[in-house]
Amino acid sequence: MVYFNCSQCGTGLRKNQVETHMNQCRSRTFSCIDCQKDFKNDEYKSHVKCLTESERYESKNFVAKQNKGDVKQNAWFEKVLKAVESFRGSPKAKSLLEKLQDYPNVPRKKAKFFNFVRNSFRSYNVSDSQLEEIWGVIESFDKADKPQNGQNNSNQTNGNNNNLKRKLEENENDENESISQQKKQLNKNLTESSENKNTQENVEPDSKEFDWQQFILNECNKQDNKSISLEKLEKKIYKKYKKFKSDEVDDSADDLEKFKKKLNKKLKKMAYIFSIIDQDSKTIVKIA
Fold it and tell me: What are the entry keywords (predicted)?
């Protein structure tokens, strides 16, 4: 995050506070706290990254090490800036997209991106349609930089496998080993479920523990859009849960209430797999 000083009153400001302060203080010049460079009017908006402490205080022969996470984030932010220039959608969605220019740390994952925008711009009453509109434009630039898949199913499968392998290799230094392993397992489950949908829909895992993730994945994959209402999901999973825990669970209201709380808790823990959204007065669970 870049910080600025007002040249008129000396107030320290985060980048997203400069515009408001400019209207209050009437100052038109702000200096970066780290590099001491002055910016007039809207010039500060282009200043998205500055000196690190190592570059500022270490020797003149200092050589910065390139961080893979920074490289990917900078490339993603460039796509956000391109989207701002080319956007031709609704005025409100465009206004939100322009605000993102002040946030170089905007997330690269769809679910996290949606949550970030909702939390950052609560006063805008952001709707799901506006988020989809913004995400679609940014994603179009992201897809344009990736290799196109082949026309036949064999080439498409090979392309998907190569893309998955490349993504996993890039994320090894950004995510801990536990999450990486979970994502590998998730992609394996999704691939198997897609290829063997007719034979896997009713298969129950042979395990001493109830496999929440696999059962929820199976129910989502049965739907054309990979999503299902929470109410419907509760009923379907509860039937399997009662069968699995036949010695412990019956049809009592207390057992059902405990099950619902446990299901919601599991969904929150697996937020990197499943998204929970409100749509048409219903709560929807979908594969992220």
Answer: Metal-binding, Nucleus, Repeat, Zinc, Zinc-finger
Structural domain includes residue 175: no
Task: Tell me the two tokens of residue 42.
Answer: 């809207």
Sheet with strand 282-287: strands edge to edge: 227-229, 282-287, 274-279
Q: What is the pLDDT along the chain (288 residues), one digit of tens a residue?
A: 677 888 888 888 887 788 888 888 888 888 887 777 888 888 877 777 666 555 555 555 555 566 677 778 778 888 888 888 888 888 888 888 888 877 778 888 889 988 888 888 776 778 888 888 888 888 887 776 665 544 445 555 566 667 666 766 666 656 656 665 666 676 666 666 555 554 444 444 445 688 888 999 888 888 888 889 999 899 899 888 888 887 777 778 888 888 889 899 888 888 888 888 888 888 898 887
CB 220 within 8 A of CB 214: no
52 within a domain of the structure (yes/no): yes
Check: CB of residue 179 under 8 Å from CB of residue 151. no
Q: Which domain holds residue 258?
A: 194-287
pTM across the whole model = 0.34
